[in-house]
Amino acid sequence: MSQENVEVARRAIEALNRNRVDAVIDLCDPGVEWIAIPGFLPDAQDFHGRAGVRAWFEKVGEILDDAHWQAEEITDAGDRLYVALKLNASGRASGIPAEMMIFQAWTIRHAKLVRLESYLSREEALEAAGLRE
Predict the structure, then answer these.
(1) What pTM, to 2 d.p., does this model score?
(2) Can you give the pLDDT of all 133 residues of the chain as single tens digits?
C-alpha cells in the first residue's frame, strides 16, 4: 500500500473541509484532469489544469453551502486510489440540507493528483481505480 498516496488524499480532503482551495490545488499536478459527475453541476463538464480545478470549486460554491467531505473509505491500488466520500451540504438557494455519497478514482504520481474521476456508483469507481474488472 502506498501510504504516501493515501496521505495525499487525506490532506486534500482535510483542506477541502477547511475551505483551503489553494492547498488542494497545490496537491494537483499542473496538468490535472478533474472528471466531474455527469449532471452534478448545472453545466456538467470536465475540468483541466489547476485553473480548471479552481473553476470546479467556484461552481460547487455557487450551488452548495457548508460543504463537509468525509472519507468513508480510501483503498490503495498502486498509483490509483479508490475514495468513497460522504458529502454533507446545504443548497445555496434553498438552504435545504443534503447528504450524498460520491465515489472516486484518484491517480497520483510523484505525490501529485494527476486525475480525479467522480461517480455516483461505487462499482464504476472501483473499476476506474483498477480494483474490479
Answers:
(1) 0.89
(2) 478 999 999 999 999 898 899 999 999 999 999 998 877 766 668 899 999 999 988 988 888 899 999 999 999 988 899 999 999 999 999 999 999 999 999 999 999 999 999 999 999 999 999 998 6
Helices (H), the chain: 3-17, 21-26, 49-63, 122-128
Residues 6+ positions from 131 with CB-CB distance below 8 Å: 75, 77, 82
Give the torsion sign (CA, 51, 52, 56, 59). Answer: positive
The conformation of residue 27, written as its DSSP 8-state character, comes to T
What is the C-alpha to C-alpha distance for residues 122 and 103, in angstroms, rounded to an integer?
A: 6
Q: Do the Cβ atoms of 93 and 81 come closer than 8 Å?
A: no
**All domains of the chain, ordered by start, with CATH?**
3-128 (3.10.450.50)
Residue 127 has phi, psi (to 5 degrees) of: -65, -45
Secondary structure E strands in 78-111: 80-91, 97-109
Alpha carbon distance 24, 80 (integer Å): 17
- CB distance 117 to 35 below 8 Å: yes
